[in-house]
Amino acid sequence: MDFQERVKACVGDDLVSMTEFRGDVSVTVPRTRIVQVLTRLKEAEGLKFDFLSDLFGVDNSALGKGKKKGKKEDEEAPAAPKPPRYEVVYLLLSIEYNHRLMVKVQVEEGQMEVPTVTSIWKAANWPEREVFDMFGIRFKGHPNMKRLLMWDGFPAHPLRKDYPLEGEGEERRLVYGDA
Amino acid sequence: MGFQAYVGQGWVLSKLEQLINWGRSRSPWPLPYGTACCGIEMMAALASGYDMARFGAERPSFSPRQADVLIEAGTITKKMVPVLRRIYDQMAEPKWVIAMGACACSGGVFRTYSTLQGIDQVIPVDVYVPGCPPRPEGLIYALLQLMEKIKQDHPLYPQLAELKKGV
Ligand code: SF4
User: Fold this and answer.
1) pLDDT digit string (tens) for B76-91?
2) What ipTM was assigned to the predicted interfaces of this complex?
3) Does A171 contact B86 at a Cβ distance shorter than 8 Å?
4) How far is the CA of A133 from the centre of ligand 1 (A)?
5) Is residue B44 in a domain?
6) How many angstroms separate the CA atoms of B112 and B117, rounded?
């Protein structure tokens, strides 16, 4: 069995889609099943994805905007159906086999909650907090679901595409202690 | 306009204002506030190779209360703004500020939600040093410019105004 088939067999019924781009395999799984899928991928013989090398969020709402100039309309591929607004991406590495895999879950607006994977990899703790900070996606069961980078009273989620590049001047109300 | 004085036997004649400015401009003790890569260049300027002490910046003062010039060398994130303000407020008058590097002047390459777009949005700046990072010579030139600026101050005008009011 080659690598893709092993991944397919391991993910099983939870597989939503699977793509390959220049040797990088990525699979999409349902939001609610992520803990089970990642546990299986971590433990499966022949895969053993024991290392979470990164975890981050994506905001797709500006996807396709600002296309390259000089490209004619008919040369473009037919527009793909618009994906859900947010994605959370897990980059896995198998130290034993030196395999890499990208696992994605899609997050619709209005259902901004994903189960935490801190029970599988402790390393997920801070990346999940960062995703919450930047996109406002909450992780269910996370031991400390607080902002990581922006200060606690910060009112927005700055990596959302509708947030202005230079911010909205929130820092003017920022004070520390009795300063 | 430098310090002019007439020296005789046992006396010196000058303007009090010039005497004060002469003293102030020749001892601008810096508060090194290096928050990013520019701080390294500031260290080079302060260390023996470039030796900013030649111009009276004799002792980097790590207490804001004993410093005259705040050398802000580096990126100021928005989270850092209250700290910067507080340090500036803690410095005793008279005080001056050098904004060193593109980041301190304007935010530099970091045009983002997390970086202050120039420290002059929160504290007054006397001399801007462009560059990413500026060379130590740049910082020394800024210090010399600042000394020129101090020499043109009128430190006694507030007292004079008080006197005229009859206080
Ligand atoms: S101006 Fe350049 S060298 Fe200086 S702190 Fe900013 S990025 Fe670093």
Assistant:
1) 999 899 899 999 999 9
2) 0.72
3) no
4) 26
5) yes
6) 9
